[in-house]
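Box 4.2: Ligand-aware structure prediction
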Amino acid sequence: MAAISSLDLLAQQQWRYATKQFDPDRKIPKEQWSALEQTLILTPSSYGMQPWKFLVLHQDQALRERLVGHSWGQRQVADCSHYVVFTVRTEITEADLTTYIELIASVRNAPTSSLDSLRKMILGGVINGKSPAQQQEWATRQAYIALGNFMTSAALLGIDTCPMEGIDPAKYDETLGLKGSGYATSVGCAAGYRAAQDKYASLAKVRFPASAMIERR
Ligand SMILES: Cc1cc2nc3c(=O)[nH]c(=O)nc-3n(C[C@H](O)[C@H](O)[C@H](O)COP(=O)(O)O)c2cc1C
């Protein structure tokens, strides 16, 4: 039995759009926000490494107003209910790997020695096999999976989002005090409720036909 019907899934995919104007007076209820935070945490990542931290900006309105200035003036940052900044590790270190292996061992009640082959694989593929710049790029790809998961989950709850790549990551890092923290801004996402006057809500979706985008073999 499907968890939701195909019709319901597609209805929410059609309903979702990159919201340009949020209603600043509507806030996401606590229980739903908590579920969305959990979807961030539950996002899959390569090797399960979770090379990210999600900054949730909700209370500090002055901070969000300052970020508007580093977001091409896009008001979604300040007017939405919750604004998430997806930050990623600037470097993946052997210490990160050890922390992760210890977490698996404790959650699954397994000796760390049983995880030696996984450790070796990650050590070769991610820690020693990539430069710090490549590691950050790899981490950024993982963050975009979290972004997609977040937007789809929000749409299923009837919550609007706008992914925000039109931002100045270096200025975000400065404003959010991330410099030297081991994390850097990759992308943002505003979440909340569309304003009644947002004309983008009723625009037809612009998508290439499936015949051009999907090749079946
Ligand atoms: C990674 C990413 C970054 C985006 N950045 C912005 C942005 O900064 N501002 C904005 O208004 N829309 C942004 N968009 C929204 C896209 O323009 C939008 O998703 C696309 O045109 C398709 O329209 P739809 O999402 O309404 O169906 C972004 C989308 C993605 C996936």
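In the box above, the bound molecule is flavin mononucleotide. The chain has nine helices and four strands.
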